[in-house]
Amino acid sequence: MSRKLIAEALGTLILVLFGCGAAVLMGPQIGMTGIALAFGVSIVAAAYGLGAISGAHLNPAVSLGMLLAGRMRAGEFVGYAVAQCLGAVIAAGLLLVIASGKADYSVAVNGLGQNGYGEGYLGEYSLASALLFEAVMTFLFVTVILGATGAGAPAGFAGLAIGLTLAGIHLVGINVTGVSVNPARSLGPAVFVGGKALADLWVFILAPLAGGALAGLLYRAGVTRAAD
């Protein structure tokens, strides 16, 4: 179990450091498309590098979906979620140290790729839009993960399918919420940015967990699972 938890922490670190790092360190150069690809590539890298150890959930919403789908135990879920959050916080801390090496960087001004909504945040979408987007996209994301890693799925392609799905979600929604679909990914930057990022954090915990839970329940009921 300790190997699985280390793999989850390390994989989530990769996700946050690559994805949020692209936004903070290279955002003006690569734009939203580049940031979306960075998040997707990070998932592919972690899935193929660490998936054989832990399954590379890297996301409490994914782990909750796995739990409710009957594919992991409650104790494993708690351990995975803690490890994922720890990895995300470490990644955000590393990113802050790196970004602070630039003379004109300020965490208050430039941020750490934190999620948000409303006035002053990217497209200034409403709370309702943020909740709906995060819940629906997490549901779709976890549905893809459960299907791509389930019995009957083509062997060896799960990491690619999952990474491309995450990149696609970012291409659609960066302007809405910055795209979380992952409570750990949102927690890491919010811890260091504080203020509005922390105040908005509940949205990026509640909505993704709700979407992941629904995906798990439908999979367990056989609605989204391949026929046995």
UniProtKB/TrEMBL annotation:
GO-annotated cellular components: plasma membrane
The keyword Membrane is annotated on this UniProt entry: yes
Transmembrane segments annotated in the record for this chain: 32-56, 77-99, 125-148, 160-181, 201-219
GO function term, MF aspect, one: water channel activity
Coiled-coil annotated spans: none
Membrane topology: Multi-pass membrane protein
Localization of this protein: Cell membrane
PROSITE patterns cross-referenced by the UniProt entry: MIP (PS00221), PROKAR_LIPOPROTEIN (PS51257)
Key word Electron transport present: no
Main location as per UniProt: membrane
Keywords: Cell membrane, Membrane, Transmembrane, Transmembrane helix, Transport
InterPro entries: Aquaporin-like, Aquaporin_transptr, MIP, MIP_CS
Family: Belongs to the MIP/aquaporin (TC 1.A.8) family.
Protein name as it appears in the record: Major intrinsic protein
Origin species: Rhodobacter ferrooxidans
